[in-house]
Design a protein that fits this description.
With 325 residues, the protein is of the alpha/beta class. It contains eleven helices and eight strands.
Length: 325
């Protein structure tokens, strides 16, 4: 075990000067070249998990809880700020905020990091789950495993779930005031977020008291690229209204042959039954529904989430196509 631990934490011997695993990767886009930030944590030639943050427009930082769980299992993971996010370049060009372009960005990152079908696990959370799925539909031959975390495979169905299920759980007076502000498109009104935070975010995004949200989450959300977020998602997590409005890959799920873990939370902004359906429709799927979890189940149902995630990754590493949790 001690020797395995030393191997996991060994530095990159190809570097003359160590920098903590950070690698800036040049990305070609239709608007020129930019650089995106990545950071490797640990070393395992067979298991390399690339993390795709949500938002869109948040940062890798809310994934920092992974450091408390994955190293002890020998799982290497890679933080990555997508273009326009966190430590990566921000070209401030909405023409670059597009799903197909982000898929090609992930492919360029994969090539630069030398990830392949023998070691490459892709974990996408929320918007990152859309990006991970879309990447898999085009490039699944490069993947060893795919984790779709807290994301439905249909934005219309997500919007419908918000209206038909989640909205009805709100107090009628609160919902009425939210609807009034939305009708006026008065999203910048402080009252709008003042209503959503306790009545929606604290119920369905992260089920902890607002003053106890983990510091990495607050730090990441404080850096949200609002241009990217609003362009793709719309002004609120309460439904969807941006470029992703009509995105729906549900009919294509049987095309996925790579092992897939579909994660949801009982109190998620996403329908947990939809997440079960995703696991059933892909060729080799496993569902993990966190009974205490919401959209950020890796914080509010942490033990369930991390146990299931590590079991899936280690199971696929052993050759299991459909991992039993």
């Amino acid at each position: 075990m001690a020797s395995a631990g030393r191997a996991y934490f060994q530095p990159d011997t190809t570097l003359a000067v160590q920098n903590g695993g950070v690698q800036m990767i040049p990305i070609s886009t239709p608007r020129g070249k930019f650089n995106v930030w990545t950071k490797r944590f640990g070393h395992n030639p067979r298991i390399k998990v690339l993390l795709l943050n949500g938002g869109p427009g948040a940062t890798h930082e809310y994934f920092e809880c992974m450091e408390s769980f994955l190293p002890q299992e020998g799982i290497e993971f890679i933080y990555y700020d997508q273009l326009g996010c966190g430590n990566s370049d921000n070209p401030r060009d909405t023409a670059l905020w597009s799903l197909p372009r982000y898929v090609e960005e992930v492919e360029q990152v994969r090539q630069a990091l030398k990830l392949n079908k023998d070691n490459f696990y892709l974990l996408g959370h929320s918007w990152g789950g859309i990006l991970a799925a879309e990447y898999a539909f085009k490039y699944q031959q490069n993947l060893k495993g795919l984790i779709i975390s807290n994301m439905m495979m249909s934005c219309p169905a997500y919007g419908q779930y918000a209206q038909d299920v989640l909205a009805k759980q709100m107090k009628p007076a609160v919902l009425a005031e939210i609807r009034q502000l939305e009708a006026k498109k008065d999203f910048a009104n402080p009252r709008y977020m003042a209503l959503l935070l306790p009545n929606f975010y604290a119920e369905h995004v992260l089920r902890l008291p607002l003053d106890q949200w983990p510091e990495p989450v607050n730090r990441s959300f404080a850096k949200m690229n609002q241009s990217l977020y609003v362009t793709m998602q719309g002004p609120s997590e309460f439904g969807i209204a941006g470029k992703l409005l009509t995105w729906d890959r549900t009919p294509d799920l049987p095309r996925l042959t790579v092992p897939v873990l579909s994660i949801g939370g009982k109190y998620d902004t996403m329908d947990p039954e939809h997440m079960r359906m995703v696991a059933a429709k892909v060729q080799h799927g496993t569902a993990l529904i966190c009974p205490k979890g919401s959209h950020m189940s890796f914080y509010d149902d942490q033990q369930t989430y991390m146990a299931g995630l590590t079991r899936f990754i280690l199971g696929v590493d052993k050759g299991e196509k459909e991992v039993k949790l």
